[in-house]
Amino acid sequence: MGTRRRQLAAAGLCVLALTAGASVPTHPASTGARPMRVVVIGDSLSTGCGTSPQLAWPALLGADSRFKGNVNIINAAENVSGYLSQGDFQGTFGTQVNSFVTPDTDTVILFGSENDIGYAPDAVRDAATTTIHAAKTTAPNARVIVIGPPSYTPEPEPERLQVRHAIKAAAANAKAQFVDPISESWISGQVDELIGPDGDHPTEAGQHYLLEHMQRLIGDPGAQLAKANEASRT
């Protein structure tokens, strides 16, 4: 079965795990300051497909003791979506940005997507550039973190590398931070523990693994929010 057909077949098992636009409940920060607004743009790696929405890394992030009350997580991820690939609700990363990124957004995380394998690399690059620019234009003070697709093997297929290269170029064009799970060997070497029986989606342990990476990328939410508030006053 080809890569695209495998993705669609696996996504068909995840209908109940859709969380597009779900806001992770938080409590007001004890200091009275508004929580930092984080919007997650992504595919089934971020919806909880294979486990549940409550065990997806965005939900785990919102429940973490360092983030709870200080961060409001908006999980806009949609199964099967990508910069060009349309998800289960015909959404793309671009429509997720247009629907959920607001001027008061403090951090935008774009994660993926292997679903863009099979599209022309130049088209992926152009769509990603447009999407990242849209996020930065809508939320000019936001930190935009662009994360490429991971690989579960040390020798990813050429088509996956083409998508990675296209997204990396788009992030550079838009002057956004780029994180490369392939070069950093995310998940690779720990597939049996971190990836479920469908061979594509994270287990509960896999979601906690992604959570740890996202925590490090976001850093101290209090410091990030203070920086964002300072930028909004200048």
From TrEMBL:
Stated name of the protein: Lysophospholipase L1-like esterase
Which first-to-last residue range defines the signal peptide? 1-22
The lineage's top-level taxon is Bacteria
Q: Which CDD domains match?
A: SGNH_hydrolase (cd00229)
Pfam families in UniProt: Lipase_GDSL_2 (PF13472)
Domain named SGNH hydrolase-type esterase: which ranges?
40-207
Alphabetically sorted, this entry's keywords are: Signal
